[in-house]
Amino acid sequence: MKLENAVFLNAEGCLERGGFRIVNGKITFQPEAQEEEVMDCEEYIIVPGLLNAHFHSYSPLAAGLMKEMAIQDWADDSDQGHIQQLFFDYLDHYMSQELFYKVAQKSYIEMVKSGITFVSDSDPGPSPWQLSEAVNELGIRGIVDTYEEIGEYHNKINGRVMFGTHLLEEEDVTEEELLKLQNEKEAYKAVRMTHCMENKWRHDLVYEAFGRSSVELYHERGLLDEGTVLFHGVYLSEKDIERIADHETSVVHCPLSNLDTGAGVADVPLMLEKGVNVSLGTDFVHTNMRELMKMVYYGLKIHQPVDRFSARDVWEMASWNGAAAYGLDHRLGRIEDGYEADLVFIRKNEYTGTFFENERFSDALHNLLFQTRDEDVAHVMVEGDWVMKDRRMTNIDEKEINEAFVEIRQEFREYVAQRELS
């Protein structure tokens, strides 16, 4: 396929006018072949597929249940905590595997509609393999955290889905568990991920037990490297950040959930200054990457020179940095020769279609971030295959998933009512 008359976000982070081709699912700028399908892209701006570097598949079902409550207080003795406990009981003991994956697919569909083509899912549900099937059915990419099942999934790939494993949250850190992780790392080469120094509670737990951060503990045991992905990092010290940079470990910035839970704001400017690879994650409940990107942009302006960070930095975090976090930066996150054709076609509007750009000044990426509307995200392609055309999913019945989601929420409400009467 040849994409002509295109405006696209190039590997240098600028909008470029021209065109390129897709051959065997990959981008090429080589001369075209004969009798090739041509798509006129005059009305679109094309950007790389975005990567959601941290998410929990069941979480949209919990929308509103965790409001105005810190993580350590979830499922406490309050009325809200009682409902939360019933929610987790419902997930663990009542909800079927089929329904769990329909909730996950509801989330993934919403992500695709904001331009996400890759998701890192930290809640595999009853089966990591079946969750990978749910991802593949939509046609997108991802990585599923298998936790302690990594031995079964080591070196496996299912379609467009990889499998990783988990480190420890601070409340779970013990000498025995750390030794187990060391042995596991020697046995299995896999992406290792975890929530890390997410809030003051977790910070205080590890310092009270060990006198140092979980980052320092991981460093001492050889568990930090380019295959390690740490979520949140709100309470990382400057020394922690330097350790992370030295080991080429990645951090996933999740400001929406951090503010939801009162965790605070991660020092992303310092991380970037020290050379940490920072990507973005919607984490809990949220699925819209563009909303997240806008928040990230404004968060970078807090107590910083107003010209220090730009929309270009945010686009990089949402695309290539996410790919780098999972060892895919040679394949994903850029419109560049030889990269996979994971592409988002954004329909131009009265703002984004008339951008100003020359060698001295550009408003193009800024307006693309702030003036694009949900309905402007028109088509999404993964490896040259359409997964959304004209905002309609091509591989799955979206209406069926939406109806199932409504039924599941109603089923949960009935479950709560029954338990409260018993």
Automatic annotation (TrEMBL):
The Amidohydrolase-related domain, residue ranges: 45-387
Signal peptide: none
Pfam families hit by this protein: Amidohydro_1
Protein name as it appears in the record: Amidohydrolase family protein
